[in-house]
Amino acid sequence: MFVLLWLLGGCAPSRPDILLVTFDTTRADAVGAYGRSPSPTPNLDALAADGVLAAQVMTVAPLTLPAHTAMLTGLAPPASGIHGNLARGVSPDAVTVAESLQTAGWQTGAVVASVVLDSTFGLDQGFDTYVDGFDFSGGPSQLRLERPADDVAAEVLTLLAAADPERPLFLWVHFYDPHQPLVAHGNEADPYLDEVAFADAGLGTVLAAMRARGRELGVVVAGDHGEGRTDHAELQHGLFVYRSTMHVPLIAAGPGLPRGTLEGPRSVVDVAGTLLAFAGLPAPTGSVPLQVADAADRVVVGESYHPRWQYGLADLHVAEDAQWRYIRAPREELYDWRADPGETTNVFAANGDVAARLAKRLPDSTSVAGASGDAEVAGALAALGYLEGLSAVPDDAAAASLVDPKDALPYVAEFDALVTSARSRPPAEAVPMLAAFVDAHPEAGAAWYLLSRARDLAGDPVGALAALAPLRAARPDDPMLAAREAELALATGDVERAEWLLSELVARHAAGAGALGVYAEVARRGGDCALATQRADAALATDSDTTSARLVRGACRYEGTDPLGAVADLEVARAADPTARDVDLLLSLAWLRVGRGAEAIPVLQALVAQEPERPVVAAALGAALHSAGRYAEAAPWLAATAGDPGLGGDPAVLYADVLLRTGASPDEAARWLDRAAIDGASPAAVWRARSAVAMAKGDPVGAVEAMKHAGEGAPAAPWLRVR
Fold it and tell me: What gap in Å lies between CA 579 and CA 584, rounded to an integer?
């Protein structure tokens, strides 16, 4: 091993293809080139043998989005503002590597494998093609979290097949596989290393495809963060800033990079400068290309706000030089990491001067707002376990006043086990577990959120609102929580509260399509379908796949004069999220209006089994059976709902028709039609039924007169409102 000292040459730069491959959750010591034996990473090892390996690289945060933002912009979290996985998104003012290369004439493409790198977070800036494939519009039940390395590699081959062979290409490929949950591939006994090996195989496929373009190629491969693997009692990552989760691989090969090893301190922010140097472009300030010599006195820094935002504990900050690592925490730490790479002996007390020197290199300890971005995205991810930004601890609470994460390991373990258990149980079973936990740990804002969600799924929106209240008090300006409160207020029937909350949200924040969809439903519940449709159209203009907006527009079309449009909207909504509230009921009713009642019968039979006490479902099933000519089967469902004024009078009209068709007295049918008229049934439908009654009584003149009252162009069938 030796240290390379070189500077960029003075010759005119070439225009090579440039490839960035990032391995999620990959510790440096999981790679053969960094000492793992036997090696699970032959492709990465071969690249290191042909290029340069940076031996001591620290990530900026043990989290995916902040680390990748640093690599693609050269900006550490204090400069980028991206401190967590649920951040509001990379600023449009930030200049990404892709934007710089795009401006310089490169084609640009990316294929990412994790939901937290979806384009909604802003890292797609400058990419001609950004393949993510994570759709938030269908709700949590339809949102997948990752795609495996073989899928990623296949997408890369498709992208390369469409690329112009005559123009240089910048391609970013992201492999997520070593992240939990782990999937067995049978190549390594250790499940974690097995996933690293699977990602390395994907790297081999991508490298071969890029080399097949026949152009000069510059390659950078980097890990975004590591994995605890029980080091310091941390199983995964985010809680601490020790080397187990902060020391990552960084290997590069290509023009301007001799072979060898860099031993000095490096940061993942250096990835941006290294990529741009391949193109002869200047590096962002603070990003030192691997083409440039080591700086012996360099200090690299990192952080984690995950303890604060996930658990209500103190955030952590770390500064590292060529020998020492200082961790700013309520109980400060200092390690001679060269002599003690496992950071087992805290030597802070005996080396205060060293700690003070490194502490000065850290950003000031200022408050950072909780990471809550687009309400729909944040809500979907929170439901899947990404709970950052939900702390009940105020943002301006000093870290020194909070519990040190290393002093809270039993609490963290209990919390993590609770989250796993609660998400795997029926909501009704999860509620008492979560309620007991928040009673003991009221600072655990994420647990309050999970309790609120569990109560809602268990059919208790009032209890869900009560569980959300502590979080709303701690985070009154959080757009995701405001949108969630509005949804729950609507579920309890408080349309006025929901309207106020969403109007404030729309006025103060760039409301996402999901929140706009709920805003549309508020207008529909208030009886204003014109306004509801306007709001739904606005949501769909923001995101054409927004399920909530499709539902609202479909419902309004169903209630109005466009049943075919209703079917179109509601079928799209149901395909996107079959668990969405009332989608099956609304679509069934729309099918009824266009003469497809037979399709609705099995759907409504399933709904009746799920919601036996809901009159509108029973009435809809009766109507569907009636439309299919199954009058005897329809009779009990319509009899049970015909006198319910909350449904309008339409079930009574159908029941009167069933009575006539099954041999009952015409007078009894007539009495139900009188009731239907009182309850607000469609007048045309009532008069048509009265015509049938008159015929049953042998009164053709009266039948003709009744049909005159029915008028021209009347609706073909009665219908029900869903509120």
Answer: 8
Please spell the DSSP secondary structure of 467-510, one letter per residue: HHHHHHHH-TT-HHHHHHHHHHHHHTT-HHHHHHHHHHHHHHS-
In whole angstroms, give the CA distance from residue 167 to residue 331.
Answer: 54
CA distance 68 to 122: 11
Q: Answer with the residue of higher pLDDT: 424 or 686.
A: 686
Identity of the amino acid at 475: R
Helices then strands, counting H and E runs in the chain, come out as 29, 13
Residue 514 and residue 491: Cα distance in Å, rounded?
Answer: 16
* CB 537 within 8 Å of CB 530: no
Q: What's residue 369's pLDDT?
A: 62
Buried b (16+ CB within 10 A) or exposed e, 507-522: eebebbbbbbbbbbbb
Q: Find, among 327, 328, 345, the residue nearest to 336 by Cα.
A: 345
DSSP string, 342-366: T--S--TTT-HHHHHHHHTTSPP--
Domains and CATH numbers, the chain: 17-296 (3.40.720.10), 372-511 (1.25.40.10), 598-710 (1.25.40.10)
Sign of CA dihedral 463, 720, 676, 633: negative
CA separation for the pair 655, 241 (Å, rounded): 69
Residue whose tokens read 């139900």: 672
**Location of structure tokens 């549309």:** 520
- How far apart (Å, rounded) are the C-alpha atoms in residues 230 and 217? 38
Model's pTM, two decimal places?
A: 0.80
**Calculated CA dihedral for residues 472, 475, 479, 481, nearest 10 degrees:** -30
| Preceding peptide of 168 cis, ω within 30° | no
Tell me the pairing of strands 129-131 and 260-267. Answer: unpaired
Residue 325 β-bridge partners: 320, 335
3-state secondary structure of 394: coil
DSSP annotation of 207 reads H
Give the model confidence (pLDDT) of 428-470 as tens digits.
899 999 999 999 988 888 888 889 989 998 889 999 999 999 8
Say if strands 260-267 and 52-58 run parallel, antiparallel, or are unpaired.
Answer: parallel
Half-sphere exposure of 516 (CA within 13 A, CB side): 27
Question: Do 456 and 491 contact (CB within 8 A), yes or no?
Answer: yes
